[in-house]
Amino acid sequence: MKTFLFSFLVCISAILLYTASTSRPIITSLSSLTSLRFNSTPKISPSALYSSLSPSPALKMTPRTLASSFLARSQSEGAGATVRRSIGTPTLRNLSPFLMLDHFTIAPGAGFPDHPHRGQETITYLLSGAVDHEDFAGNAGTIHAGDLQFMTAGRGIMHAEMPNQGFADNVGMQLWVDLPKALKGVEPRYRDLRGSEIPVVEGEGWRVKVISGKGQGVDSVRDLAYTPVWIFDVEVRPGGKLEQEIPAGWNAFAYVWEGEVLVGEGEGMRSVERFHIGVFGREGDSVKMEVSGGAAQGARFILVAGLPLDQKVVQYGPFVVTSQEEVYQAMLDYQSHSGGFERAKGWESKIGKSMVH
Asked: In 3D, which of 269, 216, 290 has the Cα closest to residue 246?
């Protein structure tokens, strides 16, 4: 049994689970956030972490340059799923606070059956289809195209993420975000953000969904994750140009799943192609983006920025802690159903049984 558990932990890496225009941007939708929480209310509010982090308005922003870009290669993951992983690979082990980024595709019968997590938050953004989730606390639900789910694993969670059987094409992004060391022991929780609740801003040749953070004159929902993260879903049509503010000193990247986008300015302008991640340098407080007027198609991508954490990252599969000793403790707690994993004993999800063996 121990051999099985160790093999399971080595293999598992659950993924189910992102104003250059002279015309004035138009806000096309904006509504309030509804959220689903479970267990006890966290003792530390995310607002405390965000309160002093919003950059001050500047008359002129300094664009960042592209530090690196590489292809996220397709690979098998979970039980029959396919992912294009960029962060969390030998090329880019992590980019604090980001631990992993997967662009996933899951067919019915495949997915991510029962598995544990500790010490991180996962952000799942669905692009098409629907994904069901279920955990050992009795929580269950479904996110659809355009929706997001923010999960805080904290001291421990066991759950399953499986494609909804009513859809043949289930595609999305999952981002793993490290938790500050002081918050790795919080109670687990979920927050669902529906696509209809996300502010959308449009300009000349571009469209931005401001999922989290400040963008194009919109200050969107921020209390979604403990670690401060800004996320934008950006669409730029041929000939479109825009500039997005990014907090100084934060790490930032863009991942493109449609077309090709040019970033930077002047001689420093570089392209980020389809299925590539582009990592930006730390100098500067904005990102300039455009698509050539002669391009055959526009580009769509996520632009993400996060506050770097000054702490060590020690990861063993789904357990993300700060020391080797904490890894051993996580494995012991999981195997002995203690320290946050008490409810894992004898638990099996219903949705996990939909997997084809």
From this structure: 216
Determine the distance from the C-alpha atom of residue 74 to the mean position of all C-alpha atoms in its chain, rounded to a whole number. 18
> pLDDT tens digits for 298-320?
999 999 999 999 999 999 999 99
CA–CA separation, 113 vs 133, rounded Å?
10
Is the pLDDT at 213 greater than 50? The verdict is yes
Residue type, 309: L
Q: What separation in angstroms does the CA of 17 have from each of 66, 105, 131, 179, 259?
A: 28, 11, 9, 17, 25
User: Count of CB atoms within 10 A of residue 341's CB?
Assistant: 22
Q: How far apart are CA 16 and CA 131, in angstroms?
A: 8
Q: What is the pTM of this model?
A: 0.84
Q: Give the C-alpha separation, 103 to 83, whole Å.
A: 5
Tell me what pLDDT residue 60 has.
82
State the pairing for strand pair 261-263/270-272: antiparallel
How many angstroms separate the CA atoms of 72 and 52, rounded? 34
Distance CA 59, CA 2 (A): 60
pLDDT of residue 164: 87
Say if residue 54's pLDDT is above 80: no
Averaged pLDDT, 170-198: 95
Rounded-to-5 percentages of helix, strand, coil across the chain: 10, 40, 45
Using CA atoms, how far apart are residues 153 and 151, in angstroms rounded to an integer? Answer: 6
